[in-house]
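All the exercises in this workshop are built on plain-text protein records. An example says more than a description, so a record of this kind follows:
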Amino acid sequence: MLKKDSVNGKAHKRLERGGYAWNTWPAWVKGSTLIVIFVLLLILYFMLRSPEVNENKATWLWDASIIEEHTDEIVTFLTEQKVNTVFLQTKNSVSDEAYRHFNAQAQAHQISVHALNGHADWAYTEKREEGTAWIEWVKTFNEEAAPEEQFAGVQFDVEPYQLKRWEREESAVIDEWSENMEEWIQAGAEGNLYMSAAVPFWLDKREAPGGKGTFSRWIIDKFDAIAIMAYRDSGQQMYDLSKEELGEADELDKKVWIGAELGHTEEGEHLTFFRKNVTNLESEMEIAAELGTKHSSFAGLAIHHYEVWHEKMNDGVPLVRKEEK
């Protein structure tokens, strides 16, 4: 039986003679090996880490009259809330100068402004020209404005399912609606406008015109982006209502905003964050954003709408309008 010292001595000699090859490798080999190991670990890190959450937001601003006196306040709030897109309703009672000023101020803060309009009956053939005329108005506005004062795009909010005819002639309405959208998209493309549409979450359960695929996929394919009215008081549910459209948009290389409702509704408290506190709102929005970020198509959350959002974030204090002074 070998003595302990004898065994240790032999092991020590093996180390001295290069029993572990590393000790005998040239310096350049050691250096190259360490670099390879480092690169492999770096690749593994990026493969395993969670993607950075897309915190971008959009919002609808329906009462455009407030931009005449509150542009600075609005833009400051939007910047603080990481909003990079505003859907701003256009109306004859607001001057072109007010729109130009607001657009320029927003763009100076990296906020894109999209003209917003639409009526439920714009889905009907006889109302097609109203939508087209509005697109032409936006194009003319942009032609007469400086680059920083222009609208970056337009958003249609057309909801024919609010009208009684939808219950009787849903398929016919979808056919007329789709034909109208094709004309509007063509008109918008001629003006180099980014085209989007606000849509309900359930269009993936309706057939596209001609029965080829879902109506949601048809719309996503035609437009540059959609905003899904996935109104629930849960971030998980907001995502669940949107994931089919997000998947379709992933395949089509288009963009999707997931909508969140903050206003009062008679349709059920589970559809809105109206009675939720700010902490709950922000927590649920973070959940929706984290889930949405898994999709390349996710453009961010779309908050409906600016005025109630501003009021909620300012302890219930509403904006003071000109006529209220």
About this structure: The two ends are 104 Å apart (CA to CA).
